[in-house]
Specification:
Radius of gyration of chain B: 22 Å
Strand content of chain B: 25-35%
Distance between the termini of chain A: 26 Å
Largest interface: A-B, 60 and 64 residues
Helix content of chain A: 25-40%
Oligomer: heterodimer
Distance between the termini of chain B: 12 Å
Helix content of chain B: 25-40%
Structural class of chain B: alpha/beta
Strand order of the largest sheet of chain B: 3-8-9-2-10-1-11-12-13
Number of helices of chain A: 11
Radius of gyration of chain A: 22 Å
Number of strands of chain B: 13
Strand order of the largest sheet of chain A: 3-6-7-2-8-1-9-10-11
Order of helices and strands of chain B: EHEHEEHEEHEEEHEHEHEHEHHH
Shape of chain A: elongated
CATH topology of the largest domain in chain B: Rossmann fold
Number of domains of chain B: 2
CATH topology of the largest domain in chain A: Rossmann fold
Largest sheet of chain A: 9 strands, mixed
CATH class of the largest domain in chain B: Alpha Beta
Shape of chain B: elongated
CATH class of the largest domain in chain A: Alpha Beta
């Protein structure tokens, strides 16, 4: 893999969904010739729609879940009492495992006095590695009906090219999947829209990123709609507004057709290159 | 009593806008905001909080440095990489208790931790159950379940006929919690390739849990070809398309004012479309 750039991991996050994380991540990566895009939104991955990658690898993501050997089990209930996730159920002479609830901590196996528990891998999703021209895309998919996104996100992140210029695309929200995605990055771009919804979720998400000690800057998408609340917040908190993308019907249409807008509006490429410069300077 | 969840798969397609309008148009309903980590419904319904409930997630491990002998067993056993230099990182600790019970010198405490708050409130349209997860916390699914329980209990007590649930994006744990035991789901989709991709995953999830999906196409006119594809998809999969809402800048204006758009300007194109959709949805609810 080429490593022509100074290594840098930039994560694109937002709080509120649909503000343009994928738009910014993909167009930034394409404009600055990033080595890799890591799509951490494993519940609803979208980056591959814009990149049409040629698949080079696909692997299952498995977590270890307990299996109880009822020949050895004495139904003492120690495992069920221990499990913080209520994934084990012992009643009378029946032992049950609710696999979907298991967080794979391994505690039940350690606590069983009869050595009746073994751990078996269970697939909860998959990850795909692909190539779109020079960029590598890694994305994950949580299987339908599965609850735990975090193990898939960490599996996707294991593929990070540590020597490269890497853009990560985070899921929306401010809960554990976002922490898992953002953690370990050198810089966080928060994409927001200048509306009360955008502001409210930006405030919460910015708090998470600041707690993790990651420098951040805000990209205002759909600039021109809404109100000034987001700008006032950024000024008050000393968060730089590093780019504005106006509400532009053409950008929205290109997006809706799965086309990265910098491909059709090349005048935007230097602006994303400038954005990378701004980020590098801010980190210094 | 019927419980309906508004979903989307992809974020930002208009779930909250639609939920708030349905709230304003409904009679004898109760509202629950199950997007507990990026909640917005309160910005349109302006609830007055009547009751605050502390939400305790799973416990948090804490190493007592005066007892710790630095044997490293906890670090070796922790599968969440939450222990470094004999300190527990509260952001990564999942509260599994493995370190606590396996510490040879009982140096690890296991304390309750408050992971957010649930609220019971009053709005001009009816009562509301909502919550706020402490930023960065786990267990958003559990908090969603608490919001749902509070909503059901209150709805029963007040003899409400409908609970409207505003869901969160995605298909993972909070979404699963927001569709457990509901009567139907309304999926709001935008005619973008991403929106369509995510709608399909949301519909698969609803199928998996045997929940009937209804669809609303929001901003249908930003890509009419994709809208036609979406309409086809609904027909082919026997999904009721409740209607299409046009792109309308009045929606943002109403949001800035903190009011549902149907109330802000009932003559606006979006308001008319949403009102019509609500009427048709009511029919479906009554006949089911």
């Amino acid at each position: 893999m080429t490593t022509t750039n100074n290594p840098l991991k930039i994560v694109v996050a937002s709080g509120k969904g649909g503000t343009g994380k994928t738009l910014v991540a993909v167009n930034l990566a394409l404009s600055v010739n990033a080595n890799q895009i890591i799509d951490c939104d494993v519940e609803e991955p979208n980056d591959h729609i814009f990149l049409n990658p040629v698949e080079t690898k696909n692997e299952k993501v498995q977590i270890l879940v307990p299996e109880i050997n009822e020949d050895k089990c004495t139904y003492c209930r120690k495992c069920a009492e221990f499990c913080q996730f209520n994934a084990l159920f012992i009643a009378g002479e029946t032992a049950m495992v609710f696999k979907e609830l298991c967080h794979s901590c391994g505690g039940c196996k350690l606590i069983c006095p009869e050595d009746a528990i073994t751990e078996k891998p269970r697939a909860i999703g998959e990850i795909t590695v692909g190539k779109s021209e020079e960029i590598e895309l890694v994305y994950g998919k949580l299987n339908i009906g599965e609850a735990l996104a975090v193990p898939i996100i960490s599996a996707v992140k294991e593929h990070i090219n540590k020597e490269g210029l890497v853009v990560l695309d985070s899921p929306p929200g401010t809960a554990c999947p976002v922490v898992e995605s953002v953690d370990g990055s050198d810089y966080c771009i928060m994409v927001t829209e200048p509306t009360p919804f955008g502001l409210h979720d930006l405030e919460v998400a910015a708090e998470v990123v600041m707690q993790l000690g990651i420098p951040l800057g805000v990209v205002v998408n759909f600039a021109g709609i809404g109100d000034r609340g987001v700008y006032d917040f950024c000024e008050k908190k000393n968060i730089p507004v590093i780019m504005e993308i106006p509400y532009d019907r053409r950008i929205a249409e290109l997006y809706s057709n799965g086309i990265s807008f910098t491909a059709e509006m090349p005048e935007w490429k230097p602006r994303f290159q400038e954005l990378l410069k701004t980020i590098r300077e801010q980190i210094k | 009593m019927k419980q309906i969840t508004i979903l989307s798969g992809k974020g930002g397609t208009g779930k909250t806008t639609i939920t708030a309008c349905f709230a304003a148009l409904s009679e004898n309903a109760l509202f629950a905001d199950c997007d507990v980590d990026a909640s917005n419904l309160h910005l349109l319904l302006n609830p007055i909080v009547k009751e605050t409930i502390e939400f305790k997630g799973l416990n948090l491990a804490k190493i007592d440095p005066t007892k710790c002998i630095e044997c490293g067993k906890c670090m070796e056993l922790c599968r969440f990489n939450a222990i470094e230099d004999f300190k527990v990182d509260p952001i990564h600790c999942e509260g599994c208790k493995v370190c606590v019970v396996n510490c040879p010198v009982e140096a690890i405490e296991f304390n309750e931790r408050v992971c957010g708050h649930a609220y019971i409130s009053e709005t001009k349209y009816g009562p509301m159950s909502h919550a706020r997860l402490t930023p960065g916390m786990e267990n958003s699914g559990k908090l969603v379940t608490l919001v749902r329980q509070n909503a059901s209990k209150l709805a029963e007590k007040m003899a409400k006929v409908l609970v409207l649930v505003d869901g969160s994006p995605g298909i993972g744990c909070p979404v699963i919690a927001s569709i457990a035991n509901i009567d139907a789901a309304v999926v709001v989709v935008e005619p973008t390739l991403s929106g369509i991709h995510d709608l399909k995953r949301a519909v698969e999830l609803l199928d998996h849990f045997e929940v009937t999906p209804f669809v609303i196409i929001n901003k249908y006119d930003i890509n009419e070809e994709n809208t036609i594809d979406l309409e086809k998809y609904c027909t082919e999969n026997s999904i009721v398309l409740l209607g299409n809402v046009p792109f309308d800048s009045t929606v943002t204006k109403a949001m800035v004012q903190g009011v549902p758009v149907v109330e802000f300007d009932s003559k606006a194109a979006s308001s008319k479309a949403i009102t019509k959709i609500w009427e048709s949805f009511k029919e479906h609810l009554l006949t089911d």
